[in-house]
Design brief:
about 425 residues, alpha/beta, Aspartate Aminotransferase, domain 1, Aspartate Aminotransferase, domain 2, 8-stranded mixed sheet, about 40% helix, binds pyridoxal-5'-phosphate
Amino acid sequence: MKKYSDMGKDELNELKAALIKEYEEIKSSGLKLDMSRGKPNTNQLDLSRGLLDAVDSKASIVSENGIECGNYAPVDGIPEAKRLMARLLMVDEDEVFVGGNSSLNLMHDVIAFCLLFPLPGGEKPWIKQEGAAFLCPVPGYDRHFAVTEHLGIKMVSVPMTSEGPDLNVVEDLIKNPIVKGMWCVPKYSNPQGVTYSDAVIKRLAAMKPAVGDFRFFFDNAYAVHDLYDDKKDELIPILPEFKKRGNENNAFIFSSTSKITFPGGGIAAVGAAKANLDFIKKNMSMQTIGYDKINQLRHARYFKDMDGIAAHMKKQAAAMRPKFEMVLNTLQSELAEHGIATWEKPLGGYFISLDAMPGSAKRVVALCRDAGLVMTPAGATYPYGNDPEDKTIRIAPSFPDVNELQKAAKLLCVCIKLAAVEKMLEK
Ligand code: PLP
């Protein structure tokens, strides 16, 4: 099979007719699948059922330092949960705030605090200044962009490279005092699966933003989500790099067990240097007397330490690996030789990011939807839902079972091909 760009109009028209036939056949098979979000499927949730017995009706619900976990306070969590989350965040135990079941919730709240109250190193809250803007590596996590847009923060796209965000662009933009923050998913980024190199982390840690109330929002949601034992990305501990350079106040590090145990019933945490942590604790203590510490206790007792998490994540990897491989093999066999799409081959995380022919991503997603496959909306991985080249498609392989996924991947490829041929025939 040739590259589409080597085909003449007649050949493309013939191909289009064949693809429409193939598409209609799949459409009539009555597919009904949702690949729009990175959700674990039921089998993966079942891997964590033991968690529910980790604090049963006969167990003590007192923490190791005597906190009654069924009662109010303290706001920042119990020591055993802090210890566990500190390892995940790669910070010290006294640099952790353990919250509720969602890191996105914590990120939202911390940004709201920054808008309303002066940060350490800043004189006025962000909202009382000349506007606030966030740097957004693209493609990125749609809900990050939704939070910043919702809270009235302007977003500026920064291109990604295979090692992390383009730091020449970042260094230039942080000279502007209205730039107050930057989203960073440092390991197995959503959606590309890129892990920031040591050099990128060190250069970010050394940066001197124009203002003292600038913060990097590192969201290490996929800290332990390797697909393979023998090939995995390594992320260096982030906060220590900032501390070494005296810039520890420039970074918040977030994570959660959402994609480790239960997305609806995990625990979330933020790691930060003392001044930032005090800022969070002070403001958070106005909105809650304390989060669900029984769930913190459950997680701490179930996993005990990072070895416990690592053993559990091997089971998660065994569930995810065949799905990633299925999608990647299908993309390779269906698309590679046609020169109409490129994609990443991540070693972990929850997503595969694919660039279809520019100008065709919306059409691909619409074709998929009409044939019963719901994908993440085209453009969602860019600020304001606007992919300037209309090319990025996020594939979330976790939720369907492998058989369904095979059909979905095949349909996606047919739609990518059909949309590409349509685009070429427009010329
Ligand atoms: N951060 C990233 C990068 C994600 O991909 C997700 C979920 O897909 C989340 C955060 C959500 O985390 P939580 O469930 O802890 O709010």
